[in-house]
Amino acid sequence: MQVTWHGHSTWHVTVGETELLIDPFFDNPKTDLEPADIDAPDYVLLTHGHADHIAHAGEFSEATLVATPELVSYCEDEFGFADAVGGMGMNLGGTVDCGDAYVSMVRADHTNGIMTENDSSAGMPAGFVVSDTKPTQVADEESTTFYHAGDTSLMSEMKDVIGPYLEPDAAAVPMGDHFTMGPQQAAIAVDWLDVDVAFPQHYDTFPPIEQDPADFESEVAGTGSDADVVVLEGDESYELDG
Protein backbone atom coordinates (compact mmCIF):
# COMPACT_ATOMS: atom_id res chain seq x y z
CA MET A 1 0.00 0.00 0.00
CA GLN A 2 1.31 3.42 -0.96
CA VAL A 3 0.10 6.64 0.64
CA THR A 4 0.83 10.14 -0.67
CA TRP A 5 0.14 13.31 1.30
CA HIS A 6 -0.91 16.35 -0.70
CA GLY A 7 -1.06 18.64 2.31
CA HIS A 8 -3.82 19.40 4.82
CA SER A 9 -5.94 16.20 4.98
CA THR A 10 -5.62 15.18 1.33
CA TRP A 11 -4.24 11.68 0.77
CA HIS A 12 -3.90 9.50 -2.31
CA VAL A 13 -3.93 5.83 -1.31
CA THR A 14 -3.02 2.99 -3.66
CA VAL A 15 -4.17 -0.51 -2.74
CA GLY A 16 -3.31 -3.06 -5.42
CA GLU A 17 -4.78 -1.69 -8.64
CA THR A 18 -7.20 0.64 -6.82
CA GLU A 19 -6.65 4.38 -6.35
CA LEU A 20 -8.43 6.26 -3.58
CA LEU A 21 -8.36 10.01 -2.96
CA ILE A 22 -9.35 11.26 0.49
CA ASP A 23 -10.58 14.81 1.19
CA PRO A 24 -9.35 16.57 -1.99
CA PHE A 25 -8.31 20.14 -1.14
CA PHE A 26 -5.35 21.52 -3.08
CA ASP A 27 -5.50 25.16 -1.96
CA ASN A 28 -2.94 24.53 0.75
CA PRO A 29 0.74 25.54 1.07
CA LYS A 30 2.09 21.98 1.18
CA THR A 31 1.32 21.04 -2.42
CA ASP A 32 2.43 22.37 -5.77
CA LEU A 33 -0.19 20.38 -7.63
CA GLU A 34 -3.54 21.26 -9.11
CA PRO A 35 -6.40 18.75 -9.20
CA ALA A 36 -5.77 18.23 -12.92
CA ASP A 37 -2.26 16.98 -12.08
CA ILE A 38 -3.63 14.05 -10.09
CA ASP A 39 -4.17 10.68 -11.73
CA ALA A 40 -7.90 10.05 -11.79
CA PRO A 41 -8.84 8.01 -8.71
CA ASP A 42 -11.30 5.14 -8.71
CA TYR A 43 -12.85 6.33 -5.45
CA VAL A 44 -13.13 9.66 -3.64
CA LEU A 45 -13.58 9.38 0.13
CA LEU A 46 -14.90 12.39 2.07
CA THR A 47 -14.66 12.48 5.85
CA HIS A 48 -17.05 15.42 6.25
CA GLY A 49 -18.52 18.40 4.45
CA HIS A 50 -16.32 21.33 5.43
CA ALA A 51 -14.92 23.30 2.50
CA ASP A 52 -11.29 22.42 3.27
CA HIS A 53 -12.15 18.75 2.74
CA ILE A 54 -14.51 18.76 -0.24
CA ALA A 55 -13.39 21.86 -2.16
CA HIS A 56 -12.04 19.94 -5.16
CA ALA A 57 -14.25 16.86 -5.00
CA GLY A 58 -16.04 17.98 -8.13
CA GLU A 59 -12.83 17.73 -10.12
CA PHE A 60 -13.03 13.95 -9.70
CA SER A 61 -16.72 13.34 -10.38
CA GLU A 62 -15.91 10.38 -12.66
CA ALA A 63 -14.91 8.45 -9.51
CA THR A 64 -17.20 6.61 -7.12
CA LEU A 65 -17.91 8.84 -4.13
CA VAL A 66 -17.79 7.28 -0.64
CA ALA A 67 -19.25 9.32 2.22
CA THR A 68 -22.31 9.54 4.47
CA PRO A 69 -25.59 9.38 2.53
CA GLU A 70 -26.24 13.05 3.32
CA LEU A 71 -22.87 14.14 1.95
CA VAL A 72 -23.18 11.89 -1.10
CA SER A 73 -26.54 13.47 -1.90
CA TYR A 74 -25.11 16.98 -1.54
CA CYS A 75 -22.11 16.22 -3.76
CA GLU A 76 -24.26 14.56 -6.40
CA ASP A 77 -26.35 17.73 -6.61
CA GLU A 78 -23.44 20.15 -6.31
CA PHE A 79 -20.67 18.41 -8.26
CA GLY A 80 -22.47 16.09 -10.66
CA PHE A 81 -21.29 12.74 -9.35
CA ALA A 82 -24.66 11.22 -10.24
CA ASP A 83 -24.02 12.05 -13.90
CA ALA A 84 -21.11 9.62 -13.91
CA VAL A 85 -20.65 6.69 -11.54
CA GLY A 86 -22.50 8.27 -8.64
CA GLY A 87 -21.99 7.72 -4.94
CA MET A 88 -21.74 4.96 -2.36
CA GLY A 89 -23.46 6.23 0.75
CA MET A 90 -22.37 4.48 3.92
CA ASN A 91 -22.40 5.16 7.62
CA LEU A 92 -20.45 4.71 10.82
CA GLY A 93 -19.48 1.11 11.53
CA GLY A 94 -19.90 -0.03 7.94
CA THR A 95 -17.28 -1.59 5.68
CA VAL A 96 -17.56 -1.47 1.88
CA ASP A 97 -15.54 -3.05 -0.92
CA CYS A 98 -13.72 -0.46 -3.01
CA GLY A 99 -11.90 -2.43 -5.68
CA ASP A 100 -8.86 -4.00 -4.04
CA ALA A 101 -9.48 -2.05 -0.82
CA TYR A 102 -11.83 -2.47 2.11
CA VAL A 103 -13.00 0.84 3.57
CA SER A 104 -14.46 1.05 7.07
CA MET A 105 -16.13 4.24 8.28
CA VAL A 106 -15.45 5.13 11.90
CA ARG A 107 -16.47 7.94 14.18
CA ALA A 108 -14.80 11.35 14.35
CA ASP A 109 -15.66 13.92 17.01
CA HIS A 110 -16.15 17.15 15.07
CA THR A 111 -18.90 19.19 13.41
CA ASN A 112 -20.28 18.60 9.93
CA GLY A 113 -22.44 21.42 8.67
CA ILE A 114 -22.06 22.53 5.07
CA MET A 115 -21.90 26.31 5.33
CA THR A 116 -23.97 27.26 2.31
CA GLU A 117 -26.98 29.48 1.86
CA ASN A 118 -29.15 26.73 3.35
CA ASP A 119 -26.65 25.52 5.98
CA SER A 120 -27.35 21.86 5.24
CA SER A 121 -26.13 18.95 7.34
CA ALA A 122 -23.71 16.36 5.97
CA GLY A 123 -24.61 13.79 8.62
CA MET A 124 -21.97 12.60 11.06
CA PRO A 125 -18.29 13.41 10.55
CA ALA A 126 -16.12 10.36 10.04
CA GLY A 127 -12.71 8.80 9.66
CA PHE A 128 -11.76 5.98 7.31
CA VAL A 129 -9.80 2.78 7.89
CA VAL A 130 -8.47 1.48 4.56
CA SER A 131 -7.15 -2.08 4.39
CA ASP A 132 -6.06 -4.57 1.76
CA THR A 133 -7.91 -7.34 3.62
CA LYS A 134 -11.41 -7.52 5.04
CA PRO A 135 -11.52 -6.79 8.80
CA THR A 136 -12.27 -9.91 10.85
CA GLN A 137 -11.97 -11.04 14.45
CA VAL A 138 -8.84 -12.96 13.47
CA ALA A 139 -5.76 -10.78 13.23
CA ASP A 140 -4.05 -10.95 9.84
CA GLU A 141 -0.36 -10.20 10.14
CA GLU A 142 -0.05 -10.01 6.35
CA SER A 143 -2.60 -7.19 5.97
CA THR A 144 -1.76 -3.51 5.65
CA THR A 145 -4.14 -0.94 7.10
CA PHE A 146 -4.15 2.87 7.02
CA TYR A 147 -6.33 5.01 9.29
CA HIS A 148 -7.29 8.53 8.19
CA ALA A 149 -8.72 10.11 11.33
CA GLY A 150 -10.46 12.99 9.56
CA ASP A 151 -11.00 16.08 11.68
CA THR A 152 -11.41 14.88 15.23
CA SER A 153 -10.71 15.46 18.86
CA LEU A 154 -9.17 12.76 21.02
CA MET A 155 -11.77 10.05 21.62
CA SER A 156 -11.72 6.82 23.58
CA GLU A 157 -12.99 4.90 20.53
CA MET A 158 -9.42 5.04 19.23
CA LYS A 159 -8.27 2.97 22.20
CA ASP A 160 -11.37 0.82 22.60
CA VAL A 161 -12.39 0.03 19.01
CA ILE A 162 -10.23 1.33 16.18
CA GLY A 163 -6.87 0.29 17.60
CA PRO A 164 -7.64 -3.21 18.93
CA TYR A 165 -10.23 -4.34 16.38
CA LEU A 166 -9.40 -2.59 13.10
CA GLU A 167 -5.66 -2.75 13.85
CA PRO A 168 -4.23 0.07 11.73
CA ASP A 169 -0.54 -0.15 10.93
CA ALA A 170 -0.35 3.59 10.25
CA ALA A 171 -2.46 6.60 11.13
CA ALA A 172 -2.76 10.13 9.78
CA VAL A 173 -3.92 12.30 12.67
CA PRO A 174 -4.78 16.01 12.72
CA MET A 175 -2.49 18.01 14.97
CA GLY A 176 -3.13 21.63 14.01
CA ASP A 177 -5.07 22.40 17.20
CA HIS A 178 -7.86 25.04 17.34
CA PHE A 179 -10.29 23.05 15.14
CA THR A 180 -8.96 19.55 15.94
CA MET A 181 -6.47 17.90 18.26
CA GLY A 182 -3.19 19.66 18.87
CA PRO A 183 0.19 17.90 19.16
CA GLN A 184 -0.39 16.66 22.71
CA GLN A 185 -3.76 15.00 22.14
CA ALA A 186 -2.74 13.76 18.69
CA ALA A 187 0.21 12.01 20.34
CA ILE A 188 -2.09 10.34 22.85
CA ALA A 189 -4.22 9.15 19.92
CA VAL A 190 -1.14 7.59 18.32
CA ASP A 191 -0.32 5.79 21.55
CA TRP A 192 -3.88 4.52 21.98
CA LEU A 193 -4.03 3.30 18.38
CA ASP A 194 -0.77 1.36 18.85
CA VAL A 195 0.32 2.04 15.26
CA ASP A 196 3.77 1.51 13.81
CA VAL A 197 3.75 4.74 11.77
CA ALA A 198 2.15 8.10 12.53
CA PHE A 199 1.71 10.94 10.05
CA PRO A 200 0.75 14.46 11.14
CA GLN A 201 -1.89 16.17 9.01
CA HIS A 202 -4.24 19.18 9.06
CA TYR A 203 -1.63 21.76 10.07
CA ASP A 204 0.06 24.89 8.66
CA THR A 205 -2.76 25.56 6.19
CA PHE A 206 -4.17 28.64 7.97
CA PRO A 207 -2.70 30.82 10.75
CA PRO A 208 -4.83 29.28 13.54
CA ILE A 209 -3.43 25.80 12.82
CA GLU A 210 0.25 26.60 12.33
CA GLN A 211 2.28 23.99 14.22
CA ASP A 212 5.83 22.65 14.36
CA PRO A 213 5.71 18.90 13.66
CA ALA A 214 8.76 18.52 15.90
CA ASP A 215 6.40 19.21 18.81
CA PHE A 216 4.24 16.30 17.68
CA GLU A 217 7.28 14.03 17.48
CA SER A 218 8.29 15.05 20.98
CA GLU A 219 4.81 14.44 22.36
CA VAL A 220 4.61 10.99 20.74
CA ALA A 221 7.94 10.07 22.30
CA GLY A 222 6.63 11.38 25.62
CA THR A 223 3.77 8.89 25.61
CA GLY A 224 6.20 5.99 25.39
CA SER A 225 4.80 4.96 22.03
CA ASP A 226 7.09 3.03 19.68
CA ALA A 227 5.45 4.62 16.62
CA ASP A 228 7.74 6.01 13.97
CA VAL A 229 6.64 9.60 13.32
CA VAL A 230 6.98 10.33 9.60
CA VAL A 231 6.68 13.99 8.61
CA LEU A 232 6.05 14.00 4.89
CA GLU A 233 6.68 16.89 2.59
CA GLY A 234 3.77 17.86 0.42
CA ASP A 235 3.20 15.41 -2.48
CA GLU A 236 5.62 12.92 -0.91
CA SER A 237 4.78 9.20 -0.86
CA TYR A 238 5.41 6.47 1.69
CA GLU A 239 5.24 2.70 1.20
CA LEU A 240 3.38 0.89 3.97
CA ASP A 241 4.00 -2.76 4.81
CA GLY A 242 1.84 -4.81 7.14
UniProtKB/TrEMBL annotation:
User: Where does the record place the region Disordered?
Assistant: 214-242
Q: Which UniProt keywords apply?
A: Hydrolase
Cite the Pfam families for this sequence. Answer: Lactamase_B_2
> Which GO terms fall under molecular function for this chain's record?
hydrolase activity
The reply to whether Hydrolase figures as a keyword in the UniProt entry is yes
> Any keyword Repeat?
no
* UniProt cross-references to HAMAP family, sorted A to Z: UPF0173 (MF_00457)
Q: Which family does it belong to?
A: Belongs to the UPF0173 family.
Q: What is this protein called?
A: UPF0173 metal-dependent hydrolase C477_10398
- The organism encoding this protein is Haloterrigena salina JCM 13891
